Amino acid sequence: MEMVLLKYDKNVLLNKIDCIINCTFKMDFGWDWPAGVALYGVSNAYEITGNKSYLDLLKQWLDEKIDDGIPNLSINGVSLGHSLLSVYQATGEEKYLEVSKELASFLKNDAERFGNGVLQHTVNSDVYIFHEQAWIDTLMMAGLFLIRIGKILDDNELYNDGLNQFHQHEELLQDINTNLYYHGWDNINKNHMSGVYWARGNAWAALTMAKALEHIDVFNPSYMKIDGSLRDLLNALVRLQADSGSWHTVLDDPSSPEETSATAGIAAALLSRGTLYNLQIQKALDSLLEKITEDGKVLQVSAGTAVMPDAQSYKCIPSKRIQGWGQGLALVFLSDLLKRD
Fold this sequence. Notes:
With 341 residues, this protein is mostly helical. The protein is 56% helix and 4% strand.
């Protein structure tokens, strides 16, 4: 079979990245996961394009928030660790590493856990507490960060904790029959709650596993575990891609809305498999580019989503407004595409 070659204009992608970043920094973010994922995308774009203006924007945002004081932390709040580490690696300025260490200390000493050291998913609110619940979101917000900072600090305890989060979330959330990931696990009631295969959740899983593998020695048994989980997940996901190139909010329900942040995250993970999924990547790229406005808004991104009570509730999540995670995941995909080029 002849290999499918990706078709795109590099200058168009660079322009789209620039527009998305300019739009993103016109949004108002607190120290929480919308900023965490948005700035992760900006960090990724800086690392690949080398555009110093992106680094300057990151530094300015982080400096202001650090001066204001870091709020009480949650799993979602740790998501800013991605950009902190990237800015530290780019500049060598210790203050960004020191704040990263604060986030790691929270995870090590204060974050709620259950079972085999699984991090209970927590949000920046004292109202919503999810006792002994594992959410796939945690791998994006904290799991990958633990691996990255553990490697930077040469701290095996943090590094191995990050690996363990991936292994335990796989055990609790990946369905052995479909190879898709459930959104959540309730350890008290021993069930997956609504049992929905949520598209953005599967994007969190696929993207973070692909990124984690970059930091794991191929001879480490953890590499084989994570690589196997990712391989089977991607194999399942490509068979659920809509004709438009996007993925549906409820992956196995074609009547549910197509969702752009999931599409970008899944497509970015597909890039990690070389040319194997070029056909699906091309379709996802064409779909995504149609969803980016001239002023950099990424459209058709569903709002923040807890583990909902049923599939219908996922289908009713609004997608009218732009979201930090939509901006960030689009940036990851577009910049990773340039990196492969």
